[in-house]
Write a structure and sequence with these properties.
Chain lengths: ~425, ~325
């Protein structure tokens, strides 16, 4: 993605959602040189502004573009599942202006050379910004740390082995110690590996009735407890990719209260679906970690509202039909989410769990801040990465209409509300 | 007719009248199987394919005999030896078989839900002969028929299901069936072999055989599925036998006329005492095998009838 300075234009008659100020204003944004030049709320001022183009937002919501932390683009290795081109299109349609991509590709993004390759691919093909994460250990095998310094210099914004847990506490603590000295953020997937081995559902009466190997959500808390001890020991900057259970929240709260540099995220599917959605072995609902109980879902929504959980992401994971048309235990995990993140998240707003501002804090401001990106704000000088959306527009999702190459969404045929009307990246309109 | 199912994927989708209809018809087939003329025509002209992705001698031969007795053309496919090894997916295999126009497809698979998946992709009637730890409906139906013939009813009985509940599809199907027929169910076993959340199923959970068997009408023992164990569920076989193996000493706690059941194959001296299993005054294990054939005849007959009615109705 190259930042082409665009001519000045005015986005007027908008409901401005500013997660930084945590307020909502009627007004207009003046865009110039790919950045926000001014935020105008006085009608006279807006009318008097001389610009080449005025875009009427029709009273709809205008917010900073979504920064989606943890997107899998299947390059290199499985371009038939998702490429930077298709992911970029999907992101633009979903109001995502920055994809923070995962290194769990084939091969893993664990050397500066591979990182340079994907950076070039992203720059050439993606219409939205891409920030890359790199693996924490070579081959994501949990044995030796990667060249964290070189990778950082090559642009890696964070280090993660994705859904693989570095089981060896010595390896993990050394990697964290090294990363801490470089000021690098480490993202972990808290899941006690022994307890969760072979599991594809959350233990309880439902999984037991369906005869699925299952794991207690306690496996998440056990791993988080371990990680918090290692963070305390090493002083590392740590982000938990997905906290999905109420049982984990006290440990997170304690760590934050003790001043550790810790944040946490949650996937949109864990905020909007629960274990019963598995129904009769519907593999599009097979996720990692598995969907939780309704009580856990509600606890997570509350934790996002209170700010205890910082980030909501799509955990976009493309899988082709073959990987999903298998018996549940054998089927691949994960769901696509770039295009459905916004309407799915609107369910939380419509259900009264979150305000639009609180939602945008988790979708945009917090992930940007945590990764040191400029996005996520409507302040003058911030990049003009914006999404214009109608929070109430209803539609029925057709998975084959998605721009992603893979169509594995759990929301197929679901009734949703919230449509993206326009997406701008660096002042350039990439959708709508 | 009260039986409206197009597949038999589990007990969960069946209504109590459907279960009763099936058991009534099975009773008729028991009489036929005991007579000199063991041949009916209910499945004449139909093709039955047995696809077993997991080895089984008892269930497969029971289905085979059931089909043959009702005049079906029966084919057995040893799936472990065939295309699966060549990398063909379950769905491809199903589509291939489907293109050969079978009428009844009997499937066993090591993964829960695999038979449901297959049933979505084929046009014939699918019978679940056991999928992972999920369901084994014909086993529960034959157990129910055995109980009904011994006790005269299925409601208001106390049934203790003992042993490795966690890995057992037989237990799950029986819990569904006995629950629907309004019996009282107790699950008895070491806590490591009782599935999480079982207490929320509307059953009693016991970790002690004496309490679990107290005043039971039926004692159903399960096979200790050693091949399914990752290791470490129980300390040792001998401790298991001491605490949970059924012998005369433990059976004393049940009612005097309590019957003893086992889905087979038995591990004598692990979950059940050998002489007790052979005691014709208490054990109905051999009757269970006999009922198995009759129940499978009834199930295939009813599914074929539903299909025929639907075809006629257009």
């Amino acid at each position: 993605m190259t930042e082409t300075p665009a001519p000045s234009f005015l986005l007027e008659n908008a409901r401005l959602i500013d997660p930084e100020r945590q307020d909502e204003r009627r007004g207009a944004l003046l865009i110039s040189g790919g950045r926000i030049a001014a935020c105008l709320t006085e009608p006279a001022e807006i009318a008097g502004t001389e610009v080449a183009e005025r875009i009427d937002c029709g009273g709809r919501c205008l917010a900073p573009g979504i920064v989606d932390l943890g997107v899998k683009v299947s390059e290199p290795g499985e371009r038939h599942k998702e490429s930077f081109r298709s992911a970029g299109r999907a992101a633009a349609r979903g109001g995502v202006t920055t994809m923070v991509t995962r290194p769990d590709t084939e091969p893993a993004i664990d050397t500066p050379e591979v990182l340079e390759y994907v950076s070039r691919r992203a720059q050439a093909d993606s219409v939205v910004r891409v920030a890359h994460m790199a693996a924490l250990t070579k081959g994501r095998e949990g044995r030796e740390m990667t060249e964290i310094g070189f990778l950082r210099d090559a642009g890696a914004v964070a280090f993660t082995d994705c859904d693989r847990v570095v089981a060896d506490a010595r390896v993990f603590s050394r990697a964290l110690t090294y990363a801490a000295a470089m000021g690098c953020l480490v993202i972990a997937h808290p899941q006690e590996p022994g307890l969760s081995r072979g599991a594809c559902a959350t233990s309880g009466k439902f999984a037991s009735l369906k005869g699925l190997p299952a794991v207690s959500p306690m496996a998440e808390r056990m791993a988080l407890d371990r990680d918090m001890a290692i963070v305390e020991m090493t002083g590392a900057r740590y982000h938990a990719d997905q906290i999905t259970s109420a049982r984990s929240l006290p440990a997170l709260e304690r760590a934050k209260g003790n001043g550790l540099d810790v944040t946490a995220g949650v996937g949109i599917h864990h905020l909007t679906l629960n274990e019963f959605d598995l129904g009769d072995y519907r593999t599009f609902f097979k996720l990692k970690p598995p969907l939780r109980s309704e009580d856990d879902r509600l606890a997570m929504a509350e934790a996002v509202a209170s700010g205890l959980v910082d980030v909501i992401s799509s955990m976009h994971t493309p899988q082709d039909e073959e990987s999903k048309r298998l018996p549940f235990e054998e089927a691949a995990s994960g769901a696509v989410g770039l295009e459905t993140l916004l309407p799915a998240a609107m369910r939380l707003v419509h259900a009264g769990h979150l305000s639009l501002n609180a939602l945008w804090r988790a979708l945009s401001l917090n992930p940007a801040r945590r990764l040191g990106l400029e996005a996520g704000r409507l302040a003058p000088g911030a990049p003009a990465d914006l999404v214009l959306f109608d929070p109430d527009a209803p539609f029925v999702l057709d998975r084959f209409a998605l721009a992603s190459k893979s169509k594995n969404t759990p929301f197929d045929t679901a009734r949703m509300e919230g449509r993206v009307l326009g997406t701008w990246v660096g002042g350039v309109r990439v959708h709508g | 007719m009260t039986f409206r199912q197009t597949h038999l994927l589990g007990i969960e989708p069946l209504s109590p009248p459907e279960i009763t209809t099936l058991l009534d018809l099975a009773d008729e087939y028991v009489a036929m199987n005991r007579g000199p003329e063991k041949h009916g025509t209910a499945l004449a002209g139909l093709t039955q394919v047995n696809m077993f992705f997991e080895t089984s001698t008892r269930t497969q031969s029971s289905f085979e005999i059931a089909g043959l007795r009702l005049g079906a053309d029966v084919m057995n496919m040893q799936m472990q030896a065939s295309s699966i090894k060549k990398g063909e997916t379950l769905i491809d295999t199903a589509m291939t078989i489907n293109a050969m126009h079978p009428d009844l497809l009997v499937v066993r698979h090591p993964h829960s839900g695999a038979v449901n998946l297959l049933a979505e992709k084929v046009t014939c009637a699918v019978l679940n002969a056991g999928d992972g730890r999920h369901e084994h409906p014909t086993q529960a139906l034959l157990d129910a028929l055995t109980i009904r013939r011994a006790k005269g009813r299925l409601h208001r009985l106390t049934v203790a299901i003992c042993g490795d509940i966690a890995h057992s599809r037989v237990a799950r199907s029986n819990i569904w069936l006995l629950g629907k027929m309004e019996s009282r169910i107790r699950l008895v076993g070491p806590p490591t072999l009782i599935p999480a959340g079982a207490a929320d199923w509307g059953v009693e959970v016991h970790h002690d055989m004496a309490a679990g068997l107290a005043d039971a009408d039926v004692v159903m023992m399960l096979r200790l599925q050693r091949e399914r164990m990752d290791g470490g569920f129980i300390p040792s076989e001998r401790e298991y036998y001491h605490r949970y193996g059924l012998d005369r000493e433990k059976l004393v706690h049940a009612k005097d006329d309590a019957i003893v059941m086992h889905p087979g194959p038995m591990n004598r001296g692990v979950e059940i005492d050998g002489t007790l299993a052979d005691d014709i005054n208490r054990s109905v294990i051999r009757e269970q095998v006999e009922m198995g054939v009759a129940v499978r005849m009834a199930a295939m007959d009813l599914l074929a009838r539903t299909r025929r009615e639907r075809a006629q109705a257009g």
